[in-house]
């Protein structure tokens, strides 16, 4: 893109800069959209099922290490409302463990 800008001899410098900025904005938007799709896909791959998450969270809610007000654990300091979604997460005192998620063929 920069090479075509430098080598272009058509239009005024203002036109060339505007064209370059429009192409840059378009490409930036495309990359941002792709990054959002990749992030959503990655999240799906590391997230446990809603049932597994509910089971983990209910264990935390009855645990003496759970702080209801902040939804944090006094042992690990994590926000359990979020941590319980992550497949690689585990309770620091062994009340619930990691979940292995098998990838499905697309
Ligand atoms: S992660 Fe474990 S120790 Fe922490 S609140 Fe949940 S069950 Fe309790």
Could you explain how this protein is built, in words?
With 106 residues, this protein is mainly alpha-helical. The chain folds into two domains: 2-46; 48-106, no CATH class. Helix content is 53%, strand content 4%. A two-stranded antiparallel ribbon has the order 1-2. It is elongated. Bound molecules: iron/sulfur cluster. The site of iron/sulfur cluster has 13 residues, from helix 3.
Quick synopsis:
The chain is mainly alpha-helical and 106 residues long.
| Unreliable stretches | none
Distinct ligands, ions and cofactors found in the model: iron/sulfur cluster
Tally of structural domains: 2
- Can you give the helix content as a percent range? 40-55%
Radius of gyration: 24 Å
User: How many strand units?
Assistant: 2
Strand order, biggest sheet? 1-2
Protein structure class: mainly alpha
Strand content: under 5%
Major beta sheet summary: 2 strands, antiparallel
Helix count equals: 4
Calculate the mean pLDDT score and round it.
Answer: 88
- Report the span from N to C terminus: 34 Å
Categorize the overall geometry: elongated
Order of helices and strands: HHHEEH
Question: Keywords for this structure?
Answer:
mainly alpha, 4 helices, 53% helix, 2 domains, elongated, two-stranded antiparallel ribbon, binds iron/sulfur cluster, 106 residues
């Amino acid at each position: 893109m920069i090479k075509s800008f430098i080598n272009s001899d058509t239009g005024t410098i203002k036109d060339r800069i505007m064209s370059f900025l429009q192409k840059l904005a378009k490409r930036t938007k495309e990359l941002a959209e792709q990054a959002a799709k990749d992030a959503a896909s990655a999240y799906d791959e590391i997230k446990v099922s809603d049932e597994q998450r509910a089971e983990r969270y209910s264990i935390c809610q009855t645990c003496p290490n759970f702080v209801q007000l902040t939804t944090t654990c006094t042992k690990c300091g994590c926000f359990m409302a979020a941590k319980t979604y992550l497949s690689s997460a585990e309770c620091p005192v062994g009340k619930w463990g990691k979940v292995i998620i098998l990838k499905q063929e697309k």
